[in-house]
């Protein structure tokens, strides 16, 4: 209390004046409080509306990203299935298109070896016959008649011609099989590499679901 207040009357007057000032300010304070509260409430409602709109926008954006992701993954999964089917068909084609040629090549080789073996046997017989004739002393019947010698010579020519023919066929078949194998191996390598690339891309998509910014293939 200020020191200038000296008596009870003055004290009462002092408090009355203070009360009157507060009473005079009452309507202004009440109005100011109401105005401020209403403004805050309007701001809160506006902020809530903006937050709801932003949340809805984010949900829509997330769904859009999700749809794009699912569409892209479905497309790449479909591509992978096509590659797997092509690879399986290619493996099957080896059994139907190349293995028969490989077997035919083995048969050609076996036929050639059989003719070569017969020719060697015939030549060994002729050599043995010549040795026996050289070792023979004194008169005696000839071991080989001219007809037999001519027949053996004819057979030798036939075997030589057969060997040349079989060798030519074997070489042609071998080149054909090697060319088929080369094309088959190249095609399979392309499919295997493509499948590996697709698997890697799908793995990248799954690991970086929302960071996948790779351009559409």
From TrEMBL:
Positions of the UniProt region annotated as Disordered: 121-153
Tagged with keyword Coiled coil: yes
Record field: compositional bias (Low complexity): 123-152
Keyword Coiled coil: yes
Protein name in UniProt: Uncharacterized protein
Residues in coiled coil: 44-75
UniProt entry keywords in alphabetical sequence: Coiled coil
UniProt superkingdom: Eukaryota
């Amino acid at each position: 209390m200020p020191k200038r207040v000296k008596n009870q009357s003055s004290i009462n007057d002092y408090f009355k004046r203070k009360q009157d000032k507060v009473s005079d300010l009452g309507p202004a304070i009440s109005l100011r409080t109401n105005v401020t509260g209403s403004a805050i409430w309007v701001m809160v409602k506006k902020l809530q509306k903006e937050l709801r709109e932003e949340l809805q926008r984010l949900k829509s954006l997330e769904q859009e990203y999700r749809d794009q992701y699912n569409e892209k993954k479905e497309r790449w999964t479909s591509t992978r299935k096509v590659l797997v089917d092509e690879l399986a068909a290619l493996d099957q084609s080896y059994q139907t298109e190349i293995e028969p040629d490989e077997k035919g090549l083995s048969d050609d080789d076996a036929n050639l070896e059989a003719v070569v073996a017969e020719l060697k046997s015939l030549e060994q017989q002729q050599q043995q016959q010549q040795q026996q004739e050289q070792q023979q002393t004194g008169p005696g019947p000839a071991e080989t008649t001219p007809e037999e010698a001519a027949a053996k010579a004819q057979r030798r020519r036939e075997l030589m011609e057969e060997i040349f023919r079989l060798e030519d066929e074997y070489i042609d078949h071998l080149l054909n099989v090697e060319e088929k194998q080369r094309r088959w191996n190249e095609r399979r390598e392309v499919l295997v590499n493509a499948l590996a690339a697709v698997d890697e891309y799908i793995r990248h998509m799954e690991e970086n679901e929302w960071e996948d910014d790779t351009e559409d293939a």
